Structure formats: structure tokens, C-alpha cells
Amino acid sequence: MAGATMEPQAEPLQLPPRETFRRILVVGCSATKHPAAPNQLVAAWDLYDGPAYRLMKALVRDGIFPGDVGVWILSAEHGLIKRLYRITTYNRLMDMRRAADLAEPTRARLRHVLDRNDARELYVFAGKNYRHCLRLLSLHLERPQLKIGFASGGFGVQLQQLRTWLLAGGEPQLPL
After folding, report:
1. What is the CATH number of the domain that holds 98?
2. Which end of the chain has the least Cβ crowding within 10 Å, N or C?
């Protein structure tokens, strides 16, 4: 058609790209997942649909997810992965045996993440088996300058603590 103009397509909603992060969030995987075809690769961030993921995605949608926070996911299947790491759907629990199996590679990966980002804060939103996998006490002894926090109490309280940590002291999100 002569004179017709095409409207620009909206970009998918996502966190802004950033090379380094001052604050690191490690969040446990979620048993609640979006349906995906078997063997279909999906970004972990898009696959998980538990309450913590819904909270974070709402903050992104509202334009208030802090730009200084990097999100890594501790997956019972894959270990510590970037939020955009592409995975297939799975069903695996983080029991104590699995936490022990993942402990060393997870701690090594977390050290790498912290070094690469020159992070000042680490916040963990995950259950006790996930925290066991991270061995936060040994990390604190290695890095006494790193401020380490984790959610505790009832689940609703933990979600409020996560939201408070995300929005406290963070840089404003870069425009999407």
C-alpha cells in the first residue's frame, strides 16, 4: 500500500542488560513452571512461575526493578545459572543429597559471579537445602566485606523481605 507506515513492534519485557551488578540475588528454582513443550529450550526466568518470580516480574513490568541487581537462579537440576540461561522443563527437588552434589560447583560459580561483578551485597531467596548448597558461612568468612542476607520466617514474610531488599537502596531501573 502506498503511504502506509508500519507500527514498531514492542520489545518483549525483560530486565535491562548490564555488565556488572552491585547487588546479587540468588533465588531458588520453582516447582511452579509455565507449561513448555518437552525438550523446548526456554529462558529460566520465563520458565519459573512461583510467587518470587511473579513478584520480580511485576517489578520489571512496573518499571521499578532495580538496575543494580543481578539475578541468578539456583536450580535443583542445573545448579547456579543466569536468569536467561535456556533450559527445558524438569521436575527435581533440592534434597540434601542433591544439595551436597551441587555444593562445590555452585560455590565455585558463585565466587566467580561475585568476583566478576565486584558485588557488595548478596541476598538469597531459597529454602534451607538451597542455602546448604551455597554454604553462606564459609562465603562470609572468605569475604567479610560482603553483606549477606537471606529471607526467613513465613513465606509471605519472606516475599515482603525480598521486595524490601530489591527496592531498598537500588539504582533506578534503566528505561526499557
Report:
1. 3.40.50
2. N
Q: 139: domain range?
A: 28-167
For 30-92, the DSSP string reads: -S-B----TT--EEHHHHB-SHHHHHHHHHHHTT-S-TTEEEEEEETTTEEEETT-EE-----
Q: Can you tell me which residue has the cell 539475578?
A: 71
Residue 23 near residue 125, CB atoms below 8 Å = no
| Residue in 175, 176, 166, 126 with CA at minimum distance from that of residue 22 | 166
Please check whether residue 68 is in contact with residue 170, taking contact to mean a CB–CB distance below 8 angstroms. yes
Render each residue's pLDDT in the chain as its tens digit; 176 residues. 444 444 444 444 455 455 689 999 999 999 888 887 678 899 999 999 999 999 999 999 999 999 899 999 999 999 999 999 999 888 898 999 999 999 999 999 999 999 888 889 999 999 889 888 887 777 777 888 889 888 888 999 999 999 999 998 644 343 32
| Identity at 22, one-letter amino acid code | R
Work out how many domains the chain is built from and give that number: 1
- Residue 14 maps to a domain: no
Place of cell 548490564: 18
| 112, burial (CB in 10 Å: exposed 0-12, middle 13-18, buried 19+) | exposed
